[in-house]
Amino acid sequence: MVRPALARTAEETKALVDRAVAHIQAVGQRQGFADISRPDGGFVDGELYVFCDASDGTVLAHGGNPKLVGKNLLAVRDDEGNLPLADAVRVGQTQGQGWLEYLWPNSATGRVQHKVVYVVRIDDRTVCGGGYYKSDPP
To answer: I need a labelling partner for 43 at 20 to 30 A (CA). Which of 37, 64, 79, 107 fits?
Structure first.
């Protein structure tokens, strides 16, 4: 079976997030977040990228859209009424790691699509994650 060029997998997503977490642990949050937010920092691969958020909703790092760093997105709802950032923080902080799904703009396609996201708790105030976009039904 041939996958579409942009299709990604849960395994690829988890591997990228786990690599980002290890990088943050190795170099510290300041340098790690800066690297994650750079397109050439090693944590952006097409539509797949890493993000990190503070529990108060502030974006600390964002490989898909570095302009979001410093913005508070806690109250942002998707078209289905989900609170993507709040949900990611909740999953990371309460479960340590986990998966969730919400609608999010895909910078590679220019469309809002369902995104399946893996998040990991970094510390009491921080989670990092990444996700892949589900293919649109035929």
So the answer is: 79
Q: What does the pLDDT look like over 94-117, one tens digit per residue? A: 999 999 999 988 877 888 999 999
Reported as a pLDDT band with limits 50, 70 and 90, residue 1 is very low
Domain total in the chain: 1
Partners of 130 in beta bridges = 50, 118
Q: How far apart are CA 53 and CA 28, in angstroms?
A: 15
How confident is the model over 41-85, as pLDDT tens digits? 999 988 899 999 999 999 999 999 999 999 999 999 999 999 999
Q: With contact defined as beta carbons under 8 Å apart, do 2 and 130 qualify?
A: no
Q: For residue 80, what are the domain limits?
A: 10-129
8 Å CB contact between 78 and 87: no
